[in-house]
User: Fold this.
Amino acid sequence: MRAAAVASAVNLAACRPLGGAGEVASLETAVGGVGMVREALDLFGDMAQEAASRHGGYVVASSADGGHWVLVFGCAEAAVGWGLDMLQAMLTAEWPDGFLEHELTEEAWEGGVLIERGLRLRIGVDYGRAMVRLVPRSGRLDYVGRPMNRAARIAAKAKAASVLMSGAAWSAARPALGSGVAATNLGTMQLKGVKEQLELWEVRTCGTGDAEHYVE
Assistant:
């Protein structure tokens, strides 16, 4: 069994630092900002790789523009740890001069606490069986299976600066996470491109007084 994470930095186990087509278009048409955005995405890539190494993850693929990443982990709690580390890294990253004023970024505070800064990172995590094969030309591993698609769809559903995971991933990760992670049950949803409905959970690092809780 493997945990798949997809990330996107607006819209990553699937992960996307850039969100939908509108944001990609703004990157391509930005005047005087493409180099700055490219530098920021390179910085994001370095942080994603470093965090993956700490959590035993493997980068399966990343898009040419650096806006969509797919990673696999040996266990679900490692994928969660990677995702939460990446959200924290966004807050403290040394972004290029002027980047935080770019339309692809956002800064948000809640109760006097900084909760979002820089690229609008959205992370989706799923858990299940995947097929793996060696690609002879590149020498890299390629993973194929429903968890990869589901993780990408979950990432697309996530809001900026959040880690969203399937019920299967949460059930697998929960026993090992301890009290340092809080989770909110968002209910069961139908995601585009996924046949079955999925129970979704949003997870975050616990603050003082936080506890696991449920939303009907």
In short: The two ends are 29 Å apart (CA to CA). The helical segments are 21-29, 34-54, 76-92, 146-157, 167-177.
